[in-house]
């Protein structure tokens, strides 16, 4: 029996990485306030690392656009695979030329992964395991993480280009 309401428990679970990094940041601040110069140095180092990790964790949380979408997304050795009820496929991160985010008429967000050889792989943003896409997309050369997060909160019906491979390959 849980004493926490399910919706609050879900929010805590969603933000657990950020909460953990904030606790680590607090521990670093506590060490920094000690009298020993050594502990102050260790505390400062912990605070710097925790600040960076908090930013990354917050971006991951804000990247998520929902859950319960159709299909499953997997990331394995630089290859994104989508297994859906009606279609699917896989694409290598090295062959990606353009990344777009669109929205269907019923408001569901879809990632369009264009590559050099096949048609675009379409992946629902709310598919199970789609949160691994953040880590995959961050590895793309020249991708701005803030632009990626802002794009997930864009409500336009038109597809927006989130990233395009430098050098003009399309």
What does this structure look like?
The protein is α+β, with helices and mostly antiparallel strands. It folds into two domains: 6-63; 69-164. It has helices at residues 6-14, 16-32, 37-63, 132-138, 145-152, and strands at 69-76, 79-83, 88-92, 96-103, 109-115, 121-124, 127-128, 160-164. A four-stranded mixed β-sheet has the order 3-2-1-7, with helices on one face. A four-stranded antiparallel β-sheet has the order 6-5-4-8, covered by helices on one side. Helix 2 (16-32) packs antiparallel against helix 3 and helix 3 (37-63) packs across helix 5 (145-152). The longest helix has 27 residues, at 37-63. It is globular, with a radius of gyration of 19 Å. The termini are far apart. 16% of the residues are buried. The mean pLDDT is 91.
Largest sheet: 4 strands, mixed
Gyration radius over CA: 19 Å
Average per-residue pLDDT, rounded, comes to 91
Number of continuous helical runs: 5
Q: How do the strands and helices of this protein lay out in sequence?
A:
Layout: H1 6-14, H2 16-32, H3 37-63, E1 69-76, E2 79-83, E3 88-92, E4 96-103, E5 109-115, E6 121-124, E7 127-128, H4 132-138, H5 145-152, E8 160-164
Parallel strand pairs: 1-7
Antiparallel strand pairs: 1-2, 2-3, 4-5, 4-8, 5-6
What keywords describe this structure?
alpha+beta; 4-stranded mixed sheet; 4-stranded antiparallel sheet
Summary of the model, kept short:
By secondary structure, the chain is α+β, with helices and mostly antiparallel strands.
